[in-house]
Amino acid sequence: MHGRISIVLISLVCCASAGCKDGQEQAGTTPGTRAAPPPRNEQPKHLPQPPHREPKVVPPPRRKKSRAERMKEPQPGVLTREQLTHMLTNARDMWMQPERVVKELAIPAGSHVADVGCGSGYWTFRLSKVVGDKGLVYGVDFDRNAITYMKERVAKKGVKNIKLILSKSFDTRLKPNSIDLALLVNVHFLKQPNEPEDSQVSEDFPGFYKSVHRALRPGGRMAMVEPDKDTKSSRHVSTDDIARQMGEVGFKLKKKYGILRGNYFMVFVKK
């Protein structure tokens, strides 16, 4: 009896030992060791991954181009043919009074005159008649489309005393001592009292008007017509500010007229 019980106990112990060993082999462990925990940084595969974001690229500061570089740049064309044609409407005569302005300027025949910012030639052809065959009118504009439009008009009319110049916003490209009078109508290169220093107006203003001053002969005049209030297409600057700014580039106010509706009419002389 005791022998039979001993045999049964031995058999149970052997089976239990074999089961533990098989379980350890299936779990990939050895006796006396624990299973390694999963890495802490490993995320369950079923969780969404954060989107990949490209690092923000900060553009380098804009380098201010030199005068020589800007002179080589091609001039853009902004004005459309429809806009240029609209500039010739007779409705402008009501507030511009071109005949009276020309009369007040008393331009002698044979004079050399520049219509700076000529556009489609509203003033250019009037000046052409005043100076006559022995005179010369420069039609100056930095809009390529305006110059192209003017070339067509000059050729169609067969006018011989008009010369066109594609200028820069900072330089009229008029030759030194080449004109007796410069007419600037609504050119809008006047600085506002609070004009930012990095604006195009502040950057181009000195060079633009100095080039007009340089082109005038001794005692030459510059006539300006500018709006007396802000509109959708114009910049209002007071007459005092205009006189001060012109003084900074070598002009002296000669006379101020009050004959135009909605516009200043001022004449400066070269110092």
What does this structure look like?
- Helices cover 36% and strands 18% of the residues.
- With 271 residues, the chain is an alpha/beta fold.
- The chain has a domain at 108-270: 3-Layer(aba) Sandwich (Rossmann fold), CATH 3.40.50.
- A 7-stranded mixed β-sheet has the order 3-2-1-4-5-7-6, sandwiched between helices.
Strand % is: 15-25%
CATH 2nd-level architecture of the domain at 108-270: 3-Layer(aba) Sandwich
> Unreliable stretches, pLDDT < 50, 5 or more residues?
15-29
Radius of gyration: 42 Å
Task: Give the SSE map.
Blueprint: H1 2-27, H2 67-72, H3 81-86, H4 93-96, H5 98-105, E1 112-116, H6 124-131, E2 136-141, H7 144-157, E3 162-166, E4 179-185, H8 200-215, E5 216-227, H9 239-248, E6 251-257, E7 263-270
Short description:
With 271 residues, this protein is of the alpha/beta class. It has helices at 2-27, 67-72, 81-86, 93-96, 98-105, 124-131, 144-157, 200-215, 239-248; strands at 112-116, 136-141, 162-166, 179-185, 216-227, 251-257, 263-270. The longest helix has 26 residues, at 2-27.
What are the main properties of this structure?
271 residues, seven-stranded mixed β-sheet, Rossmann fold
